[in-house]
Amino acid sequence: MTALPIVETQSGDVSIYIPTNVIISIKTFSD
C-alpha cells in the first residue's frame, strides 16, 4: 500500500499523499 502513495507523490500530488497516508495509518491503528 505504501508504494502507491509514493508514486502519486512523485507525480506531484503531495497534498493528496499526506492526508491519504494519515487516513491509512488511522485505519491501520484502529484495526
TrEMBL record:
Domain of life, source organism: Eukaryota
Gene3D superfamilies assigned: 3.40.50.12240
The protein's name in its UniProt record: Uncharacterized protein
Species name: Nymphaea colorata (pocket water lily)
High-level lineage: Eukaryota, Viridiplantae, Streptophyta, Embryophyta, Tracheophyta
